[in-house]
Amino acid sequence: MVKRIGVLTSGGDAPGMNAAIRAVTRVATNIGLEVYGIYDGYRGMVDGKIKQLTRESVSDILDRGGTILGSARLPEFKDIEVRKKAIEQLDKFGIEAVVVIGGDGSYRGALALTDMGVNCIGLPGTIDNDIASTDETIGFSTALNTVVDAMDKLRDTSSSHHRCSVVEVMGNRCGDLALFSGLSSGAEIVITSETGFDESEVLDRLREFDVVKKKNHALVIISEKITDVEIFARKVSQFTGFSGRATILGHVQRGGSPTPGDRVLASRMGEKAVDLLMQGVGGQCVGIQRGEIVGVPIEEALNMPSKSRKDLQNLFDRLV
Ligand SMILES: Nc1ncnc2c1ncn2[C@@H]1O[C@H](COP(=O)(O)OP(=O)(O)O)[C@@H](O)[C@H]1O
Ligand SMILES: O=P(O)(O)OC[C@H]1O[C@](O)(COP(=O)(O)O)[C@@H](O)[C@@H]1O
Ligand SMILES: [Mg+2]
């Protein structure tokens, strides 16, 4: 049975990662395991930036955004020689298994390490909600709250000036932050990779909101990586009765104190990760499916088709 485990955070940080680190550390130390924090993701694993965590090291972090362990992106980790160096460091510290808190990229690293003999369990820490094996990722709820808070504020100023706010939100290729915030804030238009983007059709709809529906404002939420929102906002000014203003919410979406939902989710998932490692399981990732915490093989999780949001998109259309 494993006696010493490591924990790291990798990829973009997400609110609730600290709650997950705390849960892993507390659940594990309470059953007599030793826990080591690996700093700055896989980079710290390669460089041996590793330090023991005690129950005190994870005090007062449950409510903090970011990650006390730091995070990083290390593309070279795809190289087996680099991973061998990482495993040498793990051996040096006597770490037999690792909990990896991150997104799909981090899962690939975790699977590669498991294939090389170090059992790893992935926890879905990303604001993007882009992991198909879980109904929700750690950080999504907090980021969504941040976006909705911004949207509410933008509506105030937009309706005072007969403006159209074009708001770019994160999500990588996943439209969940855009669609869920659109539903929550009563936006006029949501554009995601699933809805597609037809510029002239969107401009037509905006003219209709102005001329036919006599709306004082319009909120357009658009997922990142679809179009240049500054240029699009200028076209709104040029071709509709609204004056267009672009807002790129950016990294503000990644920060802040996690919601209770994220704290509880992270705690439940952290517990499951330790349980799986204690059962000798590796190469799995933890998810929540219909309210139940489950372990899913990472390979399977990475190959699942992304969730379709057609139903929610239809609902959105019926609410405008
Ligand atoms: N195919 C892979 N093999 C090994 N490691 C990988 C692989 N893909 C990504 N990683 C590691 O995971 C890190 C985080 O991945 P990234 O996609 O940036 O973020 P996220 O995990 O949040 O999706 C990468 O910087 C790299 O170190
Ligand atoms: O922090 P960076 O390097 O600017 O990356 C931005 C990207 O990271 C994210 O915030 C989170 O993505 P990951 O969870 O995959 O790391 C994406 O929404 C965004 O596209
Ligand atoms: Mg990702």
Automatic annotation (TrEMBL):
<feature type="active site" description="Proton acceptor">
    <location>
        <position position="128"/>
    </location>
</feature>
<dbReference type="Pfam" id="PF00365">
    <property type="entry name" value="PFK"/>
</dbReference>
<keyword id="KW-0547">Nucleotide-binding</keyword>
<feature type="binding site">
    <location>
        <position position="163"/>
    </location>
    <ligand>
        <name>substrate</name>
    </ligand>
</feature>
<dbReference type="InterPro" id="IPR012003">
    <property type="entry name" value="ATP_PFK_prok-type"/>
</dbReference>
<protein>
    <recommendedName>
        <fullName>ATP-dependent 6-phosphofructokinase</fullName>
        <ecNumber>2.7.1.11</ecNumber>
    </recommendedName>
</protein>
<feature type="binding site" description="in other chain">
    <location>
        <begin position="170"/>
        <end position="172"/>
    </location>
    <ligand>
        <name>substrate</name>
    </ligand>
</feature>
<dbReference type="InterPro" id="IPR015912">
    <property type="entry name" value="Phosphofructokinase_CS"/>
</dbReference>
<comment type="pathway">
    <text>Carbohydrate degradation; glycolysis; D-glyceraldehyde 3-phosphate and glycerone phosphate from D-glucose: step 3/4.</text>
</comment>
<comment type="similarity">
    <text>Belongs to the phosphofructokinase type A (PFKA) family. ATP-dependent PFK group I subfamily. Prokaryotic clade 'B1' sub-subfamily.</text>
</comment>
<feature type="binding site" description="in other chain">
    <location>
        <position position="224"/>
    </location>
    <ligand>
        <name>substrate</name>
    </ligand>
</feature>
<feature type="binding site">
    <location>
        <begin position="73"/>
        <end position="74"/>
    </location>
    <ligand>
        <name>ATP</name>
    </ligand>
</feature>
<feature type="binding site" description="in other chain">
    <location>
        <begin position="186"/>
        <end position="188"/>
    </location>
    <ligand>
        <name>ADP</name>
    </ligand>
</feature>
<dbReference type="InterPro" id="IPR035966">
    <property type="entry name" value="PKF_sf"/>
</dbReference>
<keyword id="KW-0324">Glycolysis</keyword>
<keyword id="KW-0021">Allosteric enzyme</keyword>
<feature type="binding site" description="in other chain">
    <location>
        <position position="155"/>
    </location>
    <ligand>
        <name>ADP</name>
    </ligand>
</feature>
<keyword id="KW-0418">Kinase</keyword>
<feature type="binding site">
    <location>
        <begin position="103"/>
        <end position="106"/>
    </location>
    <ligand>
        <name>ATP</name>
    </ligand>
</feature>
<feature type="binding site" description="in other chain">
    <location>
        <begin position="251"/>
        <end position="254"/>
    </location>
    <ligand>
        <name>substrate</name>
    </ligand>
</feature>
<feature type="binding site">
    <location>
        <position position="12"/>
    </location>
    <ligand>
        <name>ATP</name>
    </ligand>
</feature>
<dbReference type="InterPro" id="IPR012828">
    <property type="entry name" value="PFKA_ATP_prok"/>
</dbReference>
<comment type="function">
    <text>Catalyzes the phosphorylation of D-fructose 6-phosphate to fructose 1,6-bisphosphate by ATP, the first committing step of glycolysis.</text>
</comment>
<keyword id="KW-0963">Cytoplasm</keyword>
<keyword id="KW-0460">Magnesium</keyword>
<keyword id="KW-0808">Transferase</keyword>
<feature type="binding site">
    <location>
        <position position="245"/>
    </location>
    <ligand>
        <name>substrate</name>
    </ligand>
</feature>
<feature type="binding site" description="in other chain">
    <location>
        <begin position="215"/>
        <end position="217"/>
    </location>
    <ligand>
        <name>ADP</name>
    </ligand>
</feature>
<feature type="binding site">
    <location>
        <begin position="22"/>
        <end position="26"/>
    </location>
    <ligand>
        <name>ADP</name>
    </ligand>
</feature>
<keyword id="KW-0479">Metal-binding</keyword>
<feature type="domain" description="Phosphofructokinase">
    <location>
        <begin position="4"/>
        <end position="277"/>
    </location>
</feature>
<dbReference type="InterPro" id="IPR022953">
    <property type="entry name" value="ATP_PFK"/>
</dbReference>
<dbReference type="InterPro" id="IPR000023">
    <property type="entry name" value="Phosphofructokinase_dom"/>
</dbReference>
<feature type="binding site" description="in other chain">
    <location>
        <begin position="126"/>
        <end position="128"/>
    </location>
    <ligand>
        <name>substrate</name>
    </ligand>
</feature>
<feature type="binding site">
    <location>
        <position position="104"/>
    </location>
    <ligand>
        <name>Mg(2+)</name>
    </ligand>
</feature>
<dbReference type="GO" id="GO:0003872">
    <property type="term" value="F:6-phosphofructokinase activity"/>
</dbReference>
<keyword id="KW-0067">ATP-binding</keyword>
<comment type="subunit">
    <text>Homotetramer.</text>
</comment>
